[in-house]
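Problem: given the chain below (226 residues), write out its structure.
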Amino acid sequence: MKVSLFALLVAGTAISVLSTGCAHQSSKKGDWDDAVPLKSVSPEAALERLKAGNARYVDGESEWEGLETEQIAAHKAGQNPYAIVLSCADSRVPVEHVFDAGVGEVFVLRVAGNVKTEENMGSAEYAILALETPLLLVMGHESCGAVKGALGVEEGQYPQPLQSLLMGIAEGLPEGASLPGAVRANVERQVALIRSNDVVSKAEAAGTLKVVGAVYDFDTGNVEFL
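Solution.
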């Protein structure tokens, strides 16, 4: 069934109205009725929320106390995520925990190497247009296996889907880059590719969206914003 952009936007408007009871600020037990309407959240404020959440996580002061049925029920009416996070699929990168975020707060897209694809860009466009999410973060991580594989990939080395993924990453890496340097370079390239998307570029120009890159450190739990 074909769904028009108009229908998506109408649905998004309805969701914004219905979901004023959805938590944005905190996943702390009992706080999910302390809502902040999405339209009051600027791209800059959304970025500060991610930074503050990561700081709590690093300091061992996370407010997230686990998924409870009451919290799930509070979000049945809709969602108002304040950030889209394009992360690597690596199982050691628990996005919501890293940012001390709960249900309804972060719109997570995951793929090995945190790369831009048609599919995840379609999901991002939905969040930008229908949900009016004001921030898109591309987050790589230390010792990324996909980036490491891309550094030494050769033609015909892997099955086609994996080969295509690694070759696509390799195209944007500086010659002779170390793994840490390659991880950063890949994040920066994906940010640039995402910014070339029409929906993203128009939203950035209008000041309703910010696109940022970051790298997650396993040892400290810290997210370095680039």
